[in-house]
């Protein structure tokens, strides 16, 4: 097997064959013929008709006419990055024979695609939506795809309902609205009639659905899979990606404004972070359940609408993924990468989860539709880093040139090559699970509980998180014009938690009517599983599902706006910039126009962003340094005052030193204390940090950084306080 050894650079080396750099090269046709003019077609006279013999025109136009492929039906808008995965140690050998998970000396190359689900390729990044989190590992045993989302559960239990779900959530077929949004009658009509969606709805209505960054977003395999070790013993496994920067979100007002100010916000954030060397890192962790413990919980492990609470099965960290290279070409890599949950390697297998079972068919089927060929695996981004010998010698857009006269097996003319491998030689062997039963179109009663984990989710939220979830209900269902749909949903929420239903109903102008709740749909039957799980383990809440409880506090890669005009205090700016950079934060100078600003002592500094091109919504924190002339000029600028008010409204850290405090006092920032007296020590109140005395600048910087690390300061979240 040594000939199949790969490392983090193996995929990069493989792609080198397909890369092209046009520097110092001549323009040519597709056949390599050099051309001298591409501005005019070949004509019969200067004002005559174009000639059919113009092969250059026909080639260029034909290629342009056919250069797109159908976008994905779901997950159409995506962003990708290259990287590698490395296990921490060999502790997983006990559970799986998958080599890329068990050898700490191997850095397995990979490609990740993050995506929204509902919107088209041209939709905005920061809509409220599930986010795809798909990873292709180019292992020495072949490609393995972990195709998941940033939410650990899904809307439906059986994949046969997937067409209905997508039809309902997509724009209406009559007028093709709304784009990239679930806030319309057809989706909520479907959801209100399908109570199995309730748990997923709780996650989608939470802040999880508006991530601050792809770099600050968890990922989940969603389904229960199997690990198989070298001895053939199987165990159930759930996959989790945990961002080392922590899991953080936007606020809804911020997300909506970013849709207009920069609809590519998440894509740009990922690209720029990698470009600057702030490589996103994610820890891969697993939950492992022994086969004999399959029915020890009060939910079914095969039900994709359920999580295994971490209080019942703790996470085991097994390795880290680092994303360290942007794609060279968006279409060739990010758009053409094709994932499939059935791309497995020895040591990992599927389960009978009926949602997963359907995905094993549909993912291949949809790629064949997109590429109009079964040869999509030969596209460079999809190629394994190990040799492929499969006897598939034809098909549209075949790229591999197979030698020899044999493309079948068994054969004698090629001496039986390519030969079959044994399990010991690395062949994939499916887990021998005993399966028997009648052919039925039904579900086990173990899938029938649709509300208890939705209740668990609600119970696990902090009060700010509950507040945001309720506000999301008010927005989403407020867009629903059919009152009966609103009533059904509120009645369903009443089964989750009466206080949730009451708070939701108050913002929708309806009464809580429990009798309107939708009865559980589906054809259920009692079986062994439903009998066993009835007395299984459960918890009433799980702090691990909260983004606020136990959140990671870090300033690394955070973006801080420094508001300046001519006459700023240079020493203060440079001291705080240095303090921010020492913690890995990115400081940007924001001013009215692009120019070099002059300090009160004659130094100059370049402006990074102008007010017309940016806003507080594009930063994690704001700093206003001293400098009397700078502050007085900014007091007269509505954009500056709005910048501060909006940052305050969105609960971000705000810092001000010396005369910079006067700008805070001139704004509508309210409900906090600041250092107003000339001799005042540092004042830090609800994420607003201020210091009048120059001697306390170092301590001010440290205090400001602590405020930034908290991400948001929800204790000042009262929008009526600030008109932004």
Supply the key terms:
heme; 724 residues; seven-stranded mixed beta sheet; Rossmann fold; hydrogen peroxide; Catalase HpII,  Chain A, domain 1; peroxidase; metal-binding; single chain; metal ion binding; alpha/beta; 19 helices
Spans of at least 5 consecutive residues whose pLDDT stays below 50 are: none
Could you name the CATH topology of the domain at 78-153 and 202-382? Catalase HpII,  Chain A, domain 1
What proportion of the residues is helical, as a percent range?
Answer: 25-40%
Shape label: globular
Mean pLDDT: 93
Structural class: alpha/beta
**Count of DSSP H/I helices:** 19
Span between termini: 62 Å
What's the CATH superfamily of the domain at 78-153 and 202-382, by name? Catalase core domain
User: Beta-sheet strand percentage?
Assistant: 15-25%
Query: Over all CA atoms, what is the radius of gyration?
Result: 29 Å
Q: Report the CATH architecture of the domain at 78-153 and 202-382.
A: Beta Barrel
What does this entry look like structurally?
- The chain has 724 residues and is of the alpha/beta class.
- Among the domains are: 78-153 and 202-382, Catalase HpII,  Chain A, domain 1 (Beta Barrel); 559-721, Class I glutamine amidotransferase (GATase) domain (Rossmann fold), CATH 3.40.50.
- It is 27% helix and 16% strand.
- It has helices spanning 10-16, 55-65, 162-169, 185-193, 198-205, 252-261, 265-275, 330-335, 354-371, 452-460, 463-478, 483-496, 498-508, 528-533, 570-582, 628-635, 638-649, 660-666, 697-709, and strands at residues 78-87, 108-116, 131-139, 142-149, 219-220, 225-228, 234-243, 281-290, 316-325, 348-349, 443-444, 524-525, 559-563, 586-591, 596-598, 604-606, 609-610, 621-624, 653-657, 683-685, 688-691.
- Strands 1, 2, 3, 4, 5, 6, 7, 8, 9 and 10 form a ten-stranded antiparallel beta sheet that branches.
- Helix 12 packs antiparallel against helix 13.
- The longest helix is centred in the middle third of the chain and has 18 residues, at 354-371.
- The radius of gyration is 29 Å and the shape is globular.
- The mean pLDDT is 93.
- Its cofactor is heme.
- The active site is at 75, 149.
- Decomposes hydrogen peroxide into water and oxygen; serves to protect cells from the toxic effects of hydrogen peroxide.
- Belongs to the catalase family. HPII subfamily.
- It holds the Pfam family Catalase_C.
